[in-house]
Amino acid sequence: FGLLDNKYLASLIMINPNFNNYFTGIFGISQKNKILKLIGQLDLDFENFIGEAEQIKIFWKRNEVLSQKIILDTFFPHPFRSSFGLHWTLDHEIYKGLYISKENRLMLNTYLPLLNNFQIGYSKGEVSATELGKENGYKSLAFNALTIVSLIDNRNQRFQPTSGKLFKITFDTGWDKNSTFINSEIQYISYIHIINNSYLKLQYLSR
Q1: Parallel, antiparallel, or unpaired for β 198-206 and 164-176?
Q2: How far apart are CA 62 and CA 32, in angstroms?
Q3: What is the 3-state secondary structure (H, E, C) of 63-99?
Q4: For each successive 10 residues of the chain (207 residues), what is the average pLDDT?
Q5: Quick one: DSSP state of residue 34?
Q6: C-alpha neighbours within 13 Å on the C-beta side of residue 14
Q7: Is 5 helix (H, G, I), strand (E, B) or coil?
Q8: pTM, whole model, 2 decimals?
Q9: Spatial distance between the Cα atoms of 161 and 164, rounded to a whole number of angstroms
Q10: Partners of 203 in beta bridges
C-alpha cells in the first residue's frame, strides 16, 4: 500500500486461490446370461478448468446389472464477472430395472446476509416405470418444483477437509399431475482435530 497523493491511500492485494482437481474410480466386470456388463464407480471433480472459478462434477455408479446412477453438476459462481452464480444439476438413475428417473435443476446463486450462500431455482423431472416396474405397482409421473437452498461452508478445503463446518438447508415445493408436495433436507458436517493426523467427522442428515 502507499499514498497516491495527500488525499488517497491505495493498496494492492494479490490473491492466490487454491483450486483442486480430483479423480477416483473402481471398475469391474459382471456377467449375466452370458452378457458382460461394466460395473463400478467413477467420481471426477474439476475446478477452474476454463478460468471462471467453476466447479464441475461427474459421478457414475453401477453396482449391479439393472441399476445405474449418473450425476452431472456444474457451478459457475460469477459467470462473466457478475455478482450472481449459476448452478445446474442433471440426475439420471435406473433403479433395479423398475423405473428410470430424470431430474434437471437450474439454480441462481448469490450471497445474502443471514442466509449466506443463497440459491433459488426451478426443477423439472420425470419417473418412467418400466414393464417390470408396472408389474410391481410402479407408475410413471412428471413433476415441477421450486427449490430454495441456504448454505454455510467454512471448511478449509472441498476435498478431504480437516477443519471447518458445513450447514445446508434445502426446501422444495412442487406439483405433479395429481398432487402437490413439500420436501426439506438439513445437512450438517463438522471436522474436529484430535491428535497429529487424526480427525473426527460428525455428520447429521435429516429429510
Answers
A1: unpaired
A2: 14
A3: EECCEEEEEEEEEECCHHHCCCEEEEEEEEEEECCCE
A4: 55 61 80 77 85 87 83 89 90 91 94 84 92 90 92 84 91 86 92 88 91
A5: T
A6: 2
A7: coil
A8: 0.77
A9: 8
A10: 189
Phi, psi of 197 (to 5 degrees): -100, 25
Contact 25, 43 (CB under 8 A): yes
Which DSSP string corresponds to 174-189?
EEESS-EEEEEEEEEE
Q: How far is CA 95 from the centre of its chain?
A: 20
List, in sequence order, every residue forming a beta bridge with 109; answer none if it has no partner: 85, 119
According to the model, what pLDDT value does residue 1 have?
47
Q: What are phi and psi of 148, to 5 degrees?
A: -130, 135
Q: What is the DSSP string of 121-163?
A: EEEEEEEEE-HHHHHTT---EEEEEEEEEEEEE--S-SSS--S
pLDDT at 9: 58
For the stretch 108-120, what's the b/e string if a residue is b when 16 or more beta carbons lie within 10 angstroms of its beta carbon?
A: ebeeeeeeebbbe
Quick one: which of 155, 169, 167 has its CA closest to 199? 155
Dihedral sign from CA coordinates of 163, 83, 111, 118? negative
pLDDT at 169: 94
- DSSP codes joined into one string, 112-126: ETTTEEEEEEEEEEE
- How many angstroms separate the first and last alpha carbons of the chain? 50
Q: Say how far apart CA 164 and CA 157 lie, in whole Å.
A: 9
